[in-house]
UniProtKB/TrEMBL annotation:
ATP-binding keyword on record: no
Pfam families linked: Sterile
Native organism taxonomy: Eukaryota, Metazoa, Ecdysozoa, Arthropoda, Hexapoda
Designated name of the protein: Fatty-acyl CoA reductase 3
Keywords: Membrane, Transmembrane, Transmembrane helix
Transmembrane intervals: 28-54, 143-163
Protein origin, superkingdom: Eukaryota
Length: 186
């Protein structure tokens, strides 16, 4: 629900890549993904920007993203159990009008609408982006979707090409049909 909201309903302005990703269960796999999908593109684009006479920025952005990952890693990789006995007691003591007016739990909460409102508030008050920029942000997000799709397709095609070349070279060296030529000097 959250990804659909940020990509389609309330996209942010100036995104440099299409939002995506997933939780990784392995630090090694995470680091491999960061290298291929964060660091290499940032280095490539920053080098291109430098050659064109612009200031490189993506490696700085990447360092900030990595800091964010480090900050949230502890909270996302550990299980948290919260006791809600007091909240349950308060909820039971409320009358019907108080339950409507004072939300103590998530009963009846439209989580999708809640997240949409949170992102709209962040756009407005933190990023200072007005609602009039939403159509342009949606168009930009569609362009980023295509860029992401094409880039991933090219990446996987190159990987398959590289792997097939490696495998075919392995089989051509180890093939029994290839006669071994031994030169003996007399």
């Amino acid at each position: 629900a959250g990804r659909e909201i940020i990509m389609n309903r309330v996209p942010l302005n100036g995104v440099v890549w299409y939002p995506g990703g997933s939780m990784k269960h392995s630090r090694l796999y995470h680091n491999i993904c960061v290298f291929f999908f964060h660091l290499l593109p940032a280095i490539f684009i920053d080098t291109l920007l430098f050659c064109l006479g612009y200031k490189p920025i993506l490696m700085r952005v990447q360092r900030r993203i990595n800091k964010g990952f480090e900050v949230f890693e502890y909270y996302t990789n550990n299980q948290w159990d919260f006791k809600s006995d007091i909240a349950q007691t308060v909820r039971q003591r409320l009358n019907a009008k108080e339950r409507r007016d004072y939300k103590v739990d998530a009963v009846g909460l439209d989580i999708s609408k809640y997240f949409e409102d949170c992102i709209l508030a962040a756009r407005t008050f933190i990023l200072k982006e007005g609602n009039e920029t939403l159509p342009a942000a949606r168009r930009h997000m569609k362009v980023m979707w295509w860029v992401d799709l094409i880039t991933r397709a090219v990446f996987w095609c190159l990987m398959l090409y590289w792997i097939s070349g490696w495998v075919s070279s392995f089989y051509s060296v180890a093939s029994p049909e290839t006669p071994a030529v031994i030169a003996i000097d007399a």
